[in-house]
Amino acid sequence: MSGTIIDKIWDQHVVKAVTEGVDALYIDTHYIHEVTSPQAFTGLNDRGQKVFRPKQTIATADHNVPTVDQHLTIKNELSLNQVNTLIKNCVDHNIELFGIGHEKNGIVHVIGPENGLTLPGMTIVCGDSHTSTHGAFGTIAFGIGTSQVEHVLSTQCLLLGRPKTMRIEVNGKLGKGVEAKDVALYIISQLGTEGATGHFVEFAGTVFENFSMEERMTVCNMSIEMGAKGGLVGIDQTTIDYIKKRIDHLSDKKIKSWKLLNSSSDACFDQVIELEASTITPMITTGTSPDTGINITSNVNSTSRNSDKGLNYMQIEKNEVLIGKSIDYVFIGSCTNGRIEDLRKVAEIAKHRKKADHVTVWIVPGSNQVRNQAIAEGLDVIFKDAGFEFREPGCSACLAMNEDKIPSGALCISTSNRNFEGRQGDGARTILASPITAAAAAIKGEITDPRTYLN
Amino acid sequence: MKTIQSTGVVLAIDNIDTDQIIPAKFLKSTEKSGFGKHLFANWRYKKNGNPNPDFALNMDQHNSSILITGNNFGCGSSREHAAWAISDYGIKAIISSQFADIFKGNALNNDILPIALKSEDVSLLMHQIAQNPKTKIEVNINQQTVEINESNFSFNKGFEIDPLKKKFIVEGIGDLEFLLSIQKEIETFENSHVV
Ligand code: SF4
After folding, report:
1. In this structure, are residues A167 and A274 in contact, taking their beta carbons and an 8 Å threshold?
2. How many contacts (CB atoms, under 8 Å) link A and B?
3. Alpha helix locations (H) across A75-212?
4. What is the C-alpha to C-alpha distance for residues A50 and A39, in angstroms, rounded to an integer?
5. What percent helix, strand, coil does chain B show, rounded to 5?
């Protein structure tokens, strides 16, 4: 079959071509969480409607949840109300919920893949922009608003314009200490936060072929930070091996049909961008937009994407070199970098070392399964010995809707995906980086080239 | 809704993200209403809760329902609370040189018109409003135009809108009504669709 993987999956899901530009698109899997779903259920309830295909919606509580003492009641009344509303809606509408404390609970974009719910060739949506994460499996996955959550709950469909397609190829070999997160921050620094607006992106090239599924998820996660509707990676043996560990009875026929979805060699994309792996280094952001990443050893001037407003907010000078800059907080977690491979890499740096005295370090696993796996491997002990706090799963300081807020004015190195003003708490200043860059900063107490900590 | 006539308020900042439009701490409500007072909260109010007199919306004396803003408006999160806050505040149209995709969809689903003009035209508008904040802007949805006819300034630019979305907005129909009307076709599709 000729064509892009994006077009092929799209075509398989068109229920009706409504006009020349707009399709009614069928949605295979719908994830929901407590923040963006309540108003959608209110819509259904007001119309006296039940969810159309309840088995195709899966719920988790993640944005509001505390990351310590999860067995106790949530203290914040509004957060508690939101989580309880989700529970009630799931009961009333027969939706499976991985609530707080459930062994499968965690951040929505972590639990879908790890439980074998996200599969190739699917259309997947969630009222959350980082739904693009699921694209790592060769799916069309994208974030939607709450009105659209209601549309999916009511009809399992959405009215959508066909997206434009973009292929971003990264070829060559990544240097030592250059992580998937650095690849994501590098691409965004090249494209800008609006560079892929209107497009679905296929990430390809040897770098993505060699990436693990978790590394692919890290980059697909940040598709939205380049403005894309979503991003995906083709389906290969790495994809199949990951899925085989999570679901029983995967037939050869199924695998073959998935692989047929891959872009043909003559597939035509609206845009093609080619990047060279060897030019990518460990990256850190400098401003209040994710496209302000620079090589960690460079001068802030090496990016032109900063605004004066952003630099002022960050209290960073235009010609500053950030290596050696003292930091206050380290946040390791989120749907970008809260998976087991991330925690293993952090542990490698933390082993036999201690954090700098003045730094607070929070490690928040993306799910209970990630947390339990880390404990099984003894990573929790390494973190504890290093003075890192190893917490319970949730979105946590990625968006600071629970108690985990970075204090005003404090500088935080974060493995999350957004460095917007106030994102991690009112007045908090965020520098985005890879897990190993964050871990190195935790030990040294200042921004540090992580390569100096690698053997 | 067919036309919008109003003065304009200018926020000349690029890449305004949804965390600025409505900060996460206000997302704990389970309602759709009441977000207008929190629109741009971190910019609009001082730490003590008083209005920041230097912020554009606080300086706007005309209760403008057209917002003119920098490139890539609405980037970041999918929170529809951003659109609810804008609509609740009373803004009916936003003019920018580009909108982030999810925000654009959310705006249209809440009868807010996201109007993309060339960046030089957006600059022209910003300049004119700085010169004369009383400038009357008319947005005509049927004709897909933004028009100004002042004695010393005239402006008439077309904008794109998906024809189906336009029909829905003009006739007051939503996506949901349409999707519910094709339920039979959805069920037929399901019979032959394998995941
Ligand atoms: S971890 Fe952050 S980006 Fe990911 S879903 Fe949670 S709040 Fe959103």
Report:
1. no
2. 175
3. 77-92, 108-114, 146-155, 180-191, 206-210
4. 14
5. 40, 20, 40
Distance CA A446, CA A361 (A): 13
- Token pair belonging to A21: 């530009």
CB contact under 8 A, B15 and A76: no
Instruction: Specify the DSSP element, H or E, that contains A29.
Output: strand A29-32
- Token pair of A200, please? 């679905």
A313 CB within 8 Å of a chain B CB: no
Q: Is-contact A213 A239, C-beta < 8 A?
A: yes
How many whole angstroms separate alpha carbon A47 and alpha carbon A24?
22
How confident is the model over A185-206, as pLDDT tens digits?
A: 999 999 999 999 999 999 999 9
C-alpha span between B91 and B94 (Å, rounded): 8
From A49, which residue of chain B is nearest by alpha-carbon distance? B180
The answer to whether A357 and A444 are in contact (CB under 8 A) is no
The answer to whether the Cβ–Cβ distance between A227 and B79 falls below 8 Å is no
B194 class by beta-carbon count within 10 Å (0-12 exposed, 13-18 middle, 19+ buried):
exposed
| Structural tokens at position A59 | 């719920």
With a CB cutoff of 8 Å and minimum separation 6, the contacts of A184 are A218, A219, A221, A222, A225, A336
Does residue A110 line the site of ligand 1, with CB under 6 A?
no
Q: Is the pTM of this model over 0.90?
A: yes
A438 is written with which tokens?
A: 């964050």
Check A194 against B75: CB less than 8 A apart: yes
Pocket test for ligand 1, best of A128, A134, A339, A423 (most atoms within 8 A of CB): A128
> Does residue A33's CB lie within 6 angstroms of at least one atom of ligand 1?
no
Of B98, B100, B179, the CB nearest to A151: B179
pLDDT in tens, B89-121: 999 999 999 999 999 999 999 999 999 999 999
Residue A376, judged by CB atoms within 10 A of its CB (0-12, 13-18, 19+), counts as exposed
CB distance B42–A421 less than 8 Å?
A: yes
Residues A279-309 have pLDDT tens digits of 999 999 999 999 999 999 999 999 999 999 9
Domains of chain A with bracketed CATH: 5-161 (3.30.499.10), 164-236+243-279 (3.40.1060.10), 285-453 (3.30.499.10)
Longest Cα separation, chain B: 63
Strands across the sheet containing B93-96: B8-11, B66-69, B93-96, B113-116
| pLDDT above 70 for B1 | no
What is the overall mean pLDDT for chain B? 96
Statement: residue B190 has pLDDT above 90: yes
Burial of residue B86 (CB within 10 Å: 0-12, 13-18, 19+) is: buried
Residues sharing a CB contact under 8 Å with residue A82, sequence separation 6 or more, in sequence order:
A34, A35, A38, A64, B28, B30
Contact B78, B104 (CB under 8 A): no
pLDDT, position A436: 98
Per the listing, tokens 């925000």 go with B103
Q: Indicate whether residue A153 lines ligand 1 (CB < 6 A).
A: no
* Cα A55 from Cα A75, distance rounded (Å): 32
A63 Cβ closer than 6 Å to some ligand 1 atom:
yes
Query: Domains of chain B, with CATH numbers?
Result: 3-161 (3.20.19.10)
A96 three-state secondary structure: strand
As a whole number of angstroms, the distance between CA B9 and CA A321 comes to: 38
Distance CA A440, CA A356 (A): 10
